[in-house]
Amino acid sequence: MRDEDSATELMPIALGGPALAGLGVLIFSWTIPASVLALDGLDPYLVGVGRAAVAAILAALALAAVRARRPRRGQWGRLAVISGGVVFGFPVLTTLALDLGASGAHSAVVVGLLPATTAVFAVLRAGERPSAAFWAASAAGAVVVTGFTLIRSGGHVTGADLLLFGALLAAAAGYTEGARMTREMPGWRVISWATVAGAPISVPVAAWLLATTGPEWTGRSVFGIGYVSALSAYLGFFAWYEGLARTGIARGGQIQLAQPLLTIVWSGIALGELIDGTTALAAVLVLICVLVTQRARVQRVQDVPGRVEARAV
Description:
Blueprint: H1 17-28, H2 31-38, H3 44-65, H4 76-99, H5 104-110, H6 114-126, E1 128-130, H7 132-152, H8 159-181, H9 187-197, H10 199-212, H11 219-247, H12 249-253, H13 259-271, H14 277-293, E2 298-304, E3 307-312
Antiparallel strand pairs: 1-2, 2-3
């Protein structure tokens, strides 16, 4: 059961689970193009850590505004996992991959593996049991993304790809743990406390990077760092965690297979990247896989006092 705070708690979101997850994906789909824009004048580490610092400030203000109850002692360890995964791990690793030369479109398709990775974590950590059809569609999406990566890199995995794969693992762990914690507190408070938990690292490190890296504040860099800080690192998770909790982590996570296609479109519009046939075909095939997973059956095991209940999602 969720903790109750004061009467000033934020109003619950009325949208259904898939719609909330879809809204989160729409917000996240701009993350890579915005990161590329932020790199136009800013150090990659400043982009990766600075967004966490800004999000921590926003989260602290929001928590103070509603007088949110502090997490219990046993919850801080799980918040640290979320913080390590989505506050630091994914942002820093993807930004470094982009700085090494990975294009926005290439990075977007590789990130298409994230739903399959999240589904594995959902089985390990959340007790979900996807059907054979679900795994087949997820595996097909993973094969498409892996094949695309090898084709675009001349048959070998690059350093940027290794960074992106590390980012996938970090994000999947953070997504799963965050969605599990929404059973105990609203999703917006989960990401708020996770970003605040990382503030002792993110804020001083960001301040040091600001003072030592010589940032150049252009219109592109201001928009980029502003977007990834306020939306990608914070507000997007309001919808995303609630969507995963209501839909099921494995099934809800597959909606993110649509993210590569969206990111490729935004990269073409905002960055002027040319989208070739291979990239477009990979994105469409991945999108087909997400449609199949949304019709597949997933059993979600819930812990209930005195018994365990399996619910079909």
